[in-house]
Amino acid sequence: MTQIIVVTSGKGGVGKTTSSAAIATGLALKGHRTVVIDFDIGLRNLDLIMGCERRVVYDFVNVINGEANLNQALIKDKRCDKLYILPASQTRDKNALTQEGVGKVLSLLAEQFEYIICDSPAGIENGAMMALYYADLAIVTTNPEVSSVRDSDRIVGMLQSKSRRAEQGLEPVKELLLLTRYAPERVSSGEMLSVVDVEEILAIPLLGVIPESQSVLKASNSGVPVILDQESDAGIAYSDSVARLLGEELPFRFITEEKKGFLKRIFGN
Amino acid sequence: MSLLDYFKSDKKVNTAATAKERLQIIVAHQRGERDAPDYFPQMKHEIIEVIRKYVNVGPDQISVQLDQNDEKLSVLELNVTLPDP
To answer: Which residues form the CobQ/CobB/MinD/ParA nucleotide binding domain (chain A) (predicted)?
Structure first.
């Protein structure tokens, strides 16, 4: 049974694409056939984060319009043989994604994949609504910051009213919180909302906490999903999140301040 | 910066607590309107305008709220703080 997962947030720049790339890669590494779709029509970037930007020939909209078949548009990941990418189109036509067209492509993908990850664009326009419409599970990506938390709450509302599951009166979309760019030292100095604060406000279960990390920028610079950097805390935190998604119970790491040793205090990192 | 300022700035202001408080209020408000019908914001706006045509009150002295009491009953609550005559 294929599971459709939307990575969404409302607000832009919180880490949806980074998280989509990391989680899709993580699921594939665990042996599951996974495809990750870029829903950001006109502003595609998932291809860059995945490092396959020069291999894009056909895209999602071409498939919807019948200009290419699905297998022509799917890009096989070079590092992970169970992972495929479906890039967004660079068209400026906002209504390129139709509910019917998206549904058709998703049901074709469901024939060959276990997990379909939908990387949502920011905002609450057509692209974002299409990305969440067919979802079984939503990963609500949030930064510990007022505007991001508020927008996440709006998106939670939309998942509960505008999704296919809501419209057809089925079991509601399962919503999970992914807190990104978390800085424990700022939390302990009272400058940043804590995990508990955000959980309490949004009232949805926690999937993972990704610490603010320099490795995320390094990973995007080189087009390698950060989860492949298992030296970095962000990479490890994404692996933990993927394991939880697959039903494992793991303690949350990197949510408390790391005590700096004597030498670290003097010489820095 | 004077030496005195240096000691003052040492006092930590917990802005995260302020953020949480503000979010709890705005999110509760947002959720109140989440289940409301699509026409609700427009209707609310018009009700406020009608009241303000007759009485000189600010928008913060009027609250229009829709409460879902149970499956079959929704209550439209209108609260107006009238100024002294």
So the answer is: 5-226
